[in-house]
Amino acid sequence: MTAARPEMVRGGRPWRWPRGMWRHDHTSMAPRATLAAALGAGAIATLTLQVTVVSIAYLLTGAAVAATAFATVRPRPTRLQVGAALGALALLAVAAVRGAEWLVTLCVVASWVVGSVALVGGWTWTGLALASTAVWLTPVRVTCWVRRGRARFRTGRGVKPGRVAAVTAISVVLILVFGSLFVSADPEFAELFGAVVPDVQVTNPVGRLILGFLVMGTALAGAYLRRRTPRLDALAPRPGRPVARWEWAVPLALLDLLFAVFVAVQVRVLFGGDEHVQDTDDLTYADYARQGFWQLTAVTVLTLAVIAVAVRKVDRQDQGDRVSARLLLGALCVLTLVIVASAVHRMSLYENEFGFTRLRVSVMATELWLGVVFVLLMVAGVRMSGRWLPRAVLASVAVGLLGFAVFNPDGYIAERNVQRYADTGNIDVGYLRGLSVDAVPALDRLPEPARSCALLGMDVGDDTGLFEYNHARVRAREILRARPVGECTDLSSLG
């Protein structure tokens, strides 16, 4: 997609973006402040961000990109955009607090999605889904936008971005050269110089430059999208034509009946817990927890698909259809919430009996989130208006991930396994070794030799640069310096 040729070939026939999706853009020019801010964002990423190191650099880079997109172009951001941008930065801030790479990865991906929605908005599922790809639709448009901006600056009297970059580079070189000479000449000045100037270690310079270029391009694209926001909702499929009431009411009524019978018959199985396991021959906790868990999870997800199709077939202008839809879909949501509670209950029993793992904790968190989605569906059904629903679901994902980070899954897993070891004497130190530095405070409470076996090989890093700061690593280093890891002996007796 380009500005001059906004069409693509699909199946041998030209395909064009829907009319009105992109605003005509042949004269707008990138502001001087935008170019300077984007250059600064790229420099920050080049000097501070290491993709493989969980650190505060993610937040600093994200803040620089956000500042370029929201503070250097008009119009002024709305309250909703400001809230979404702050939410995206809060997700990036997890990298400065938690050390679990898998959790930080989820938060960074979610931050990209939320930040993209802050830039281009969207009210439909299609619009929100495509928002995260909007940056990749703009390279040619952004290039033309920047070129026109540079051409204007060349003919103007203001400060030119190229001159700013040159002066900045010369200043940095001079400070580093003469500063290093003064540092080697006087120890006291060396200490002062080291405290004032951050320690930036640039490894893999080629990769850093490429990363900085990509971040600069992302910042420019973000500013362009704020200035020339595409209407991605135009790509959403048109609402389907409503059908006769019986065509959707009969299948929903039968499905409600099936759910009701299942819940009624399985009440003792679903919530029997200890008594059900003890009263049933050849039934262990593992069998009970696994028995139908994934099937119940699949039922929950498929029910969302059924509801999504059904609501498109309801005639919302007809009073009878609205009442029937509220009753049938509401009953389906309530019964599905019972299924969600059942799945959570099963997983809880399994975790209490066999210990906690990332997969088990994550699956339980996902089930709880699905329960929240069904509650939102019920609210939308009562109002018979779901225009706000896609954004509410996305917000629930962001809030849920932030809550999950506050919950500290690796730390919680370690705490529960430490408690299980105190109660039963069983512990899987091999699994605990694979946890992140978030687990160190809890594992430190283990008695020896279990403590040393669990903490053996724990990578707490040796962050020397200001931009490599991570609270979890700092705390873990302090603990292990105070109580170094000893020898791991008699590993077979630890379960």
TrEMBL record:
TM spans, by residue?
A: 55-73, 85-113, 125-144, 164-185, 205-225, 246-271, 291-311, 323-344, 364-382, 389-407
UniProt keywords, alphabetically: Membrane, Transmembrane, Transmembrane helix
User: Which Pfam families does the record cross-reference, listed alphabetically?
Assistant: DUF4153
Note the InterPro entries from the entry: DUF4153 (IPR025291)
KW Membrane (keyword) present: yes
Q: Does the keyword Transmembrane apply?
A: yes
Highest rank taxon of the organism: Bacteria
Q: What is this protein called?
A: DUF4173 domain-containing protein
Query: What taxonomic lineage is listed for the species of origin?
Result: Bacteria, Bacillati, Actinomycetota, Actinomycetes, Mycobacteriales
